[in-house]
Amino acid sequence: MIPYFETHITEACNLKCRGCSHFSVFAKPKHKDLKEFEREFKRLSEIEEIGIIRLMGGEPLLNPDFMEYCRIARRYFPKTSISLVTNGILGHKLQPYVDELNRLKINVTISDYHLAKQNKDIHTELHEKGSLYNISLDPSGSQDADLMHYFCDIRINNWFYYMDGRFYPCCIAGTIHDFWNHFKLDWGFTPEELSIDIFTHTAEEIEDFISKPCKLCAYCDTLTRQRTYKPFSISEGKMEEWTI
Length: 244
What we know:
alpha/beta; TIM Barrel; 8-stranded mixed β-sheet; two-stranded antiparallel sheet; globular
């Protein structure tokens, strides 16, 4: 069983948060293909039990079909806890679907940045995000991968990431390509080396892979990340917002 994963239904975002752990500041604004989403969730339901699924982005309410992703997720995972995670700025888009969301038992979670433009009137869960941390990437790759993995809060909480038919140990591994592409970086390995395909591997192989250190762990100063919380601010798109 995989206790938790988060996945994007869009890469588009209407906030550019400093230190965004999903690198949405640099992502190209595209939506997840709906047919592929269903094909992948069907496969997942055949091989894995999932405890919690979080549908997010980017900002998921920028995807005009956001409700259809919720319906598909619930269809294939009738017993799983499912949340739609939003920043609430487009909260008015939820209003027509409140009854259906309740019927589907889809939780709506607002990442609370304490911004006046966030719409918190819809019945939701609030997730405190008034402070953000820098990812504290180490471009030199000189960290002890095993040690960083051992102390990693993401590992400890089993916050796995899933996208495009592949599981990643964390959202940083799953979205680091946007950071690389923006700053034209080559760290000597590819996103495929940080992930495992759900169509060619068993549940046991997937669970084993995502529970171990990956090559990116040597580039992630976990200990620094966990002590560099800062107040929310808008990113200026500078590399040092994410690096030590």
